Amino acid sequence: QTLGARISGGAALARGWRGLYALEYARQTPHGGNLATSAHTYLLVEPGVSHGPTTLKLGYERLSGDGRTAL
User: Fold this and answer.
1) Which of 25, 42, 43, 47 reaches 20 to 30 Å from 64, CA-CA?
2) Closest Cα to residue 43, out of 2, 6, 10, 68?
3) Do 49 and 56 form a contact (C-beta atoms < 8 A)?
4) pLDDT tens for each residue of 33-45
């Protein structure tokens, strides 16, 4: 079973500049009789800025795994 959420948006910072963000989180857990998988998580953090037609974003993404299974 996988459950997750995403939120993204932006806000004016100064004349012509806009701050941007995106955040995601998900968690996957075994469901029913499936004993072959363990719980895993996923995380994304993506801040950014834009000015006119130019956008700059940085990203951090983490996917967990145990060497046999992964999200």
Assistant:
1) 47
2) 6
3) yes
4) 766 667 889 999 9
**pLDDT value at residue 47:** 98
Both structure tokens of 5: 């959420």
Q: Tokens for 43?
A: 């995380």
- What's the CA gap between 64 and 25, in Å, rounded? 12
16-60 pLDDT, tens digit each = 999 999 999 999 887 777 666 678 899 999 999 999 999 999 999
- Could you write out the three-class secondary structure of 13-33? EECCEEEEEEEEEEEECCCCC
Which token pair is 36? 């072959």
